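Workshop exercise sheet. Pairs work together: one partner reads the sequence aloud, the other fills in the structure field after running the prediction. Swap roles for the next sheet.
Pair: D.N. / O.F.
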Amino acid sequence: MSGTFAFSRRDMLRAGAAGSAVIGTAALSPLARARMMPQDMDRAAFANAVRELKAVVGDEWVFADEASTVSYRKSFIPDLRGEHIPSGAVAPKSVEEVQAILRIANTYGLPMWPVSTGHNMGYGMATPASSGQMILDLKRMNRILDFDAELGTILVEPGVTYQQIHDYIEENDLPFWIDVPTVGPIVSMVGNTLERGVGYTPYGDHFFMQCGMEVCLADGSILKTGMGSIEKGNTWQAFKWGYGPYLDGLFTQSNFGVVTKLGMWLMPRPPVYKPFVARSANVEDVAAITDVIRPFRMNNLIPNGVLIMGALYQLAMFRRRSDIWQQAQPIPADVLKAEAKRNGLGMWNTYFALYGTEEIIAATEPILRAAFEGAGAEVLTDAEMNGNPWFEHHKTLMRGGMTLEEIGLVRWWGRNGGAVAFAPVAPAKGSETRGQTELATRIMNKWGFDYAPAYAVGGRELHHIIFLMFDKGDETSSANAEKCMDEMIREFGARGWAAYRSSVSTMDLVAQQYGQTNRDVNARIKQALDPNHIIAPGKQGIA
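Structure field:
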């Protein structure tokens, strides 16, 4: 089974400018305008490259001036010095056009920054790691190429969104669920998986559920990983590993090639699904809750990734800061606790679900209830939450449903709000949450920001998801956001808590924390696969 979905140029520009109602994009400063040009490339060479790109994709799919690239510059992260300004964008429709574009890029030394849909919220959207790179926008490559309804596998191009896959499943009455990231309807399955993003169902580890990819290398050659290179093969989306070294991981969070197709496993729709929230009244409760969750994730009694959502993160989805607190200093804990209680929330709200038959859920639920209640939490379901919007939001996500409600985070400070994400990783132990919560609160409050946390317990690991929300319309707030993020990365890293993912503005800083040998190996692979360094220089700190 397969399907297609076509973008018009107007649709594409509108999609590229998502969030424009939230963040205005002012005219570029002289410095930022100067940085639009690729480094070490004169205007004549750039004009020649643009002309050749237009010959490949058509004039209307190349954007190479300040006015036409405005949507690609939109980003929620701070960028006061214009360090993430693209020189333009080119939007191919096929693998053959990607190959032709990379040949031109090699000829002229024009760096290309690939994006799928450009909605990497909190991490830079479509903007490149350094100014002057041209966006290789893959949204027009938006076909569902195959859907095996017996195996529950799918093969898609980079521009396919989770909404498109969800609609395809619904329209064809297929017995499967997808697993979505936070703002799934506008996000690419390929893009999120390559960033090693996660979701909310038992299939929430997206890269683990990925199976086979097609990669266009810098020289234009095509690699099909796993079983994809077998002549007359039929197991490309059924068996991950193939033969010999496993290569798929090389093309995640990297700049070693351009992924043009990706296979994924989908979750069979369960006969019964029951969501829960465990509500905890006090900030210090997060340690005990983490220790409750860990064994249940390890033995899979709780089958999905568990989110422990802080009160402020939750409130920011549907409230503006001025609704709660009108002062410049961070919101006091007692004010936050009272506002959370008014909205049916605890200081921590732990969301998990059970999937299977009525008998399985009936046997498992009492075990989980006893454990959470023993840690002082109140365990609630649909019946008690009675339409609470935060519970409904997570209930939707934990069944692979579509929601955009967490975009509200960037409006915390109003129309010109901004947000940048930080996600350090630690072992899933309650003792880790104490130090991380204290450190993040201290640093963020020092710079005048509210601490908006969530913890995610995968299997044995703990992700600390921090959204630093600031006023992007205010230069002081933006400058402080940059300094705050820099200090958090350094201070967390000094304690062994490095991030697993990074904004384009901090990729090099995070890469430094993984050691010189790691960087040297990445550099050697880069030199072997992309000797002219034309694919996304600077991504994850790899030149």
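Discussion prompt: DSSP finds 19 helices and 19 strands in the chain. What would you look at next?
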